[in-house]
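Archive entry. Fields below.
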Amino acid sequence: MSELLTKLGIDWHLFLAQVVNFGILAFLLHRFLYKPMLKILSERSAKAKEVVEGAASMAQAKRDLEQEIVETRNKARKEADEILVEGQKKAEIIRAGVIAQLEKELVLLKNKALAEIEKERAKAMNEAKNELASTVILAAEKVLAREVKNEDSIKLAQEALSKVKE
Amino acid sequence: MHISIAAEKLFNIFGFPVTNSLLMSWLAIIILISVAVYFKRTASSVPGKFQSLLEMVFEALLNLIDSITQDRKKSEKFLPLVLTIFLFVIVANWISLVPGVGSIGLNTEDGFLPLFRPTNTDLNNTLALAVIAVVSAHFFGLKALGIKKHIGKFLNFKGPIDFFVGLLEAVGEVSRILSFSFRLFGNMFAGEVLLLVLAGLVPFLVPIPFLGFELFVGFIQALVFAMLTLVFLTIATAEHH
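PREDICTED_STRUCTURE:
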């Protein structure tokens, strides 16, 4: 057995040295390579997870905001429709009131104008009467060729007027 | 042409023999520790090219370990052992292909004495790795299952068949050490001999494809050793139903 081990080159000194060497190597690699590497990777993974979660919550917030915008828009549209309907109703009422007022004013103006016309007509009639009386008197004076006395002129005028009335 | 199964002794330090393969293993260890220390010094949350490369390799190996253990906590527990085996074996295998290894040496009275010899062509190293792997599997098994359950895998008195199965398991543990150590030793030694013979026969161009092939073999052997260790660790810590 011993001869076989010697032929194979197995020496317990060297075997032990390789075990110790490997132990030292494993310890140093663990300390200087594996540990820091695992730390970096876990930190990066945590950061990535955080970013992903942040992105997910932002996406959720975006969805919520979009939903809110849609709801607000619908509400605003509904309110606008209501305001429009209300406005149309009020406008209708105002229009009806204005028309009624205008009609009333129109009637008043018409009546006033009619009264004015009547007044003007009566005035014109009176003036025409007086003008006519003067003309008749002048014509009668010329016919009679004499000065008509005051009593005569009154009498003539009355006669003329009664004729005109007839 | 000098071919020897045993590593050649270069000198003694206080009675401790220093062989050419031990020298190469120190070189591999120095390279790995230098890389680790450089990483530790320059590591930042925003990685540079060197750190990115290391992170990429590390993450790929960690994911591979995860795929076997199916448990990140277990992976992180086994990582120092499994990854150190992988890195040590692959670096030791690859630096063995550097020109000068096996060809630079001293002419002594006993003949040519190479200064460097591939680490894994020395059974002391492969045996040490195998023993570490198997002992670690038992250590983690004991820690995870407790003494009774773990020893119960090998000493089972529930019946003659169970007893025999337990015995086979115990024999399997010993043969595992042998298969582990001789697989790596055999592959690397054969590769080294092949390269040596080829370089002796046709020194130019012809060895180049074989060097590439040895790079691949070096990687595969490191991966096989590390993954088998991981599988044994996982099995040792798993509950039997």
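CURATOR_NOTE: Chain B has seven helices and four strands.
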